Structure formats: C-alpha cells, structure tokens
Amino acid sequence: MTRSPPAGPAWAGSLMGTSIAATLSLMHGLVWPGLALLAVASVLLPVFAVGWLRHRNPGFTQEFMGPWGMVSMGVMALGSAWTAATDLLAPQLLAWLIGLPLAVVVCLWQLRRFSGAPSFPWGLAVVSPMVAATSGGQLALQLDGPGAQVIPAIALGCFALSLVTGLPLFARIYAARPRIPASFAGTAWIPLGIVGQSTAAAHVLLDAPFAHTYGLVMAALGVPMIAYAAWHFWGRAVRTWAEYSPGWWGSTFPAGTLSLGAAYLGWEQVSATFLGLLLTHWALCAARFAIRHRR
Q1: Domain 9-293 adopts which CATH fold?
Q2: Where are the domains of the chain?
Q3: Which terms are listed as keywords in the entry (predicted)?
Q4: What's the count of helices (H) and strands (E) in the chain, helices before strands?
Q5: Considering the entire predicted model, what is its pTM?
Q6: Which of 175, 75, 183, 189 is nearest to 124 (CA)?
Q7: DSSP state of 89
C-alpha cells in the first residue's frame, strides 16, 4: 500500500470540493447538508495548516505549484461558503484577499516550467486565478466605493490570465494522451474546472449577452470533456475501487464549478444535476478515505 502524503496542500482538493459543495447545497436549498459540509470544510483548513507547519510537505517551490494552487482555491471557496451561509460579505472578501495573490503567484511561477510528462495536475495552478476572478466579480457586485471599480479590473485580469494560459495548456495535455494511474483518475476532471468556473466568472464580469454566448461555447466544449473524465473516474477508479490518493478529490471541485456555471446560465435543473454528481463524488471520496484509513 502506497503511503499517503501528510496533511497539507496535497490534500487541499478535499477542502475545495467540500467548500463548493457547501455553497451549492445552500444555493439549492439543502440547508442542513450545506451547513454540515461547511463545518467539515472549516475543520479541514486548520488541519491542513497545522499539518504543513509540522511537516513542511510540500515546500513552496516551483515543482509544487499545483498543490499550492489548490490551497488558494480552497481558501477562496471556503470564504464563499461562509458568505453563502451567513450573508456576510467579510468572509469572502478576506478569503479573496488571501487567495488572490497566492493564485497569481503560483500561476505565474508554474508557467515558467512544467515538470515531468504532461498531466492534468499541471493545470491546477493555472485554474486558480479563474476562481479569484469569479470571487472578485461576485464581491464587486456587492461593494460600493473605490472597491467597486478596482476589484472588477483585478478580477478581469485574473480571468484573462487563466483563460489565455489554461486553454492551450489543457489542449496540450489532452493531445499528449496522458497515462493516468487509476488512483489518480479523478484528476481527469481538472480541465472542467476552467469550463464551469470561467462561465461563472464571465457572468459576473462581462456583459450578459456575451457572457451567455461564452457559456454556451464552454458548455459545448465541456460535453466530450465530461465523457472523458467520467470514463476515467467511474470506469477505472470507482469500478475497481482503486488505491486511495489525493487524486480522488480531483473529481469534486470541477463538478461543482459545472453546477455553478449552469446556475449562472439559468439552467437550474442542470445545475442541480451537477450538484448531485458533486455530492456523489464527495461521498465516494470520503468513503474511500474512511476505508483506506480504518484500523
């Protein structure tokens, strides 16, 4: 049995997935499940922080920008979940102020070099500014004063940075036909993060007609990507109950962004369907974790 990495950034995918599951559950009226997921996510963040302070694994070095990108996205997703639960803007704003600079740094640093053979975790750092773009756009819609002008400009820059670098990067990875171990099959969902997240970002940052058209284009691109990801995750990891790794959690946050993007497009039933998929993926990941670590 392969030894799992210690608590820290490598596991931040679980923070991302749990936080967006909480937000979307609350959005769709699943109050108690949403609050329960929020409680779990709120415990995960300090556990991972303490774990990293203890083990310093991975270090904040160029080859580990993917996990640190997950940290930035996880922090922002948790802040958004707390705002969804309390209607207070402060948690999302604080999380954005922390997650935004980290997202930009890890993205730019990742773009300097990619280590090893092409793989979907390459895109984790590149997607992180898109989460900052969505969160910034949401904040700008609710703020007055100078922030209402400055934040959208920053968020739009993050949108462009992630889109311009992310699309060709994922195209290159798909073209390379990466060999994905079954325990990391959940990472095949990662490219869909930019599909759903950029659709949401477009709706809070751009004119409505353009944003809607953009969302339709992304939805069309997403259909074969969903089929590819589902074949890998369900057909290989779930069907064979593959060895547990942080890669399982790669199946959660992207499914959540698809639900969020569909909601902004006005496709409520589609959004609810993707929320069901997200919760199913979350339950599978949690169950696999429990079985992996039972005594």
Answers
A1: Glycosyltransferase (1.50.10)
A2: 9-293
A3: Membrane, Transmembrane, Transmembrane helix
A4: 10, 0
A5: 0.96
A6: 189
A7: S
